[in-house]
Design goal:
By secondary structure, this protein is α/β, with parallel strands linked by helices. It is about 30% helix and about 20% strand. The N and C termini lie far apart (about 90 Å).
């Protein structure tokens, strides 16, 4: 019986090792690890803790070995920089980590490093603003991996930025309770950060991720205003990959997706504005608030749905149409009119409703909250 003679493993050239260190930024290329390998994370001692792993095994008999093993033993494209733990993981379980998967992880990691290091130092910096307020008994956490994916590559970030979090907000409270919370928890904090910056760094751009009651999101948008450029992100419920839930999807080609109408016209100074984007708003939900002596306007879409707002372009179109309608309402009803907003909208639209409010131009705007147990809206918060 012939005996296979094992070829001696070749030594990886120093130039190839250096290339791997540079392309990986000295971090483990196993997806989700990203551990720096120039120091020990436990003892904090500095040193070389990197290991060079073969995607196609270095020998046919090794993990992921093929008839190309010897040929690709020293090929840069077949090598990954890994920490010791991750190297052991992929070699102990080669069936879980096939060749194509490891190639994809290597390419994704090295592409990310290339993009992040190609920007000049003073551009593409954004302050992260996380807004999370419970809705009743439910508090929805914001997935930080999904946040980073949504901002990347336009705004690579590892910073924590500004956090406004509350787990015990009582949405059943009085309008005074809503107003006090908004002014103390939102207005003061946002104003301070906009004036002072974060860690003494002036806020030049904001990337906003928010979850909470619609009136509070509108108030948050009003506090930010349009003086600081802001990207507002939207959580998408029907995305299978949870690490991409906050990423805007591809631009849609829908033209004029929003329809605007006046359902009831009066010369009264009381105006109701229905925003029926995520759901329809039947008259039974607001009959407790209106009378025959008020005007009712509506912005809606053909099929209101929580999944409607998929692209950033649809948010931009809404902002334009909403701002135009506010101007028309003021022209018709006067600056002293009072606008009550009935929202059934995605969170990003709620924030944008507040952002476009002009401090010295617009009339008083109030936000209403829908209570499903009562089956009706209630006016809870003065936005401006």
């Amino acid at each position: 019986m012939a005996t296979r003679i094992m070829a001696k493993r070749k030594s990886i050239p120093d130039a190839t090792k250096l290339q791997l260190w540079i392309k990986s930024a000295g971090r483990c290329e196993f997806k989700g690890c990203n551990t720096p390998v120039w120091y020990n994370g436990l003892t904090l001692s500095e040193g070389n803790f990197a290991e060079f792993a073969h995607i196609i095994g270095s020998s046919q008999d090794g993990p992921r070995g093929t008839d190309q093993s010897e040929e690709l033993q020293l090929n840069f494209c077949n090598l990954m920089l890994l920490c010791q733990r991750c190297h052991k993981e992929i070699d102990d379980h080669p069936e879980k980590y096939p060749i194509e998967l490891l190639r994809t992880w290597k390419q994704e990691h090295e592409n990310r490093i290339e993009i992040q290091t190609s920007y000049p130092e003073d551009i593409h910096k954004s302050t992260l603003l996380l807004f999370s307020v419970n809705i009743g008994d439910r508090t929805v956490p914001i997935n930080m991996e999904a946040v980073r994916n949504a901002m990347f590559p336009k705004f690579p970030t590892d910073q924590q930025g500004i956090k406004i979090e509350e787990k015990d907000f009582d949405r059943l409270g009085t309008p005074d309770h809503w107003q006090t919370f908004a002014e103390n928890k939102i207005k003061r904090k946002v104003s301070r950060y906009l004036e002072e910056g974060v860690d003494d760094v002036k806020t030049k751009h904001i990337s906003l991720f928010g979850i909470g009651p619609m009136p509070l999101l509108m108030y948050l948008g009003r506090c930010i205003g349009d003086t600081v450029p802001t990207d507002i992100y939207q959580s998408h419920r029907n995305i299978e990959n949870t690490s991409k839930t906050w990423s805007w999807q591809e631009e849609t080609s829908v033209e004029l997706p929003y329809s605007i109408s006046c359902e009831q016209e009066s010369e009264s100074a009381i105006v109701f504005l229905k925003l029926a984007i995520s759901d329809t708003i039947g008259s039974d939900k607001y009959q407790n608030l209106v009378s025959s002596n008020c005007s009712i306007y509506q912005i809606t879409v053909h099929e209101p749905s929580p999944h409607f707002l998929k692209s950033k372009r649809l948010l931009e179109i809404f902002s334009y149409e909403y701002r135009k309608l506010l101007n028309e309402i003021q022209a018709k009803h006067g600056k002293k009119c009072k606008i009550h907003i009935l929202p059934a909208v995605p969170v990003s639209i709620a924030v944008e409703c507040g952002r476009v409010i002009l401090p010295t131009k617009d009339p008083e705007i109030y936000a209403c909250e829908y209570y499903s147990d009562q089956g009706e809206f209630q006016t809870v918060l003065k936005v401006n």
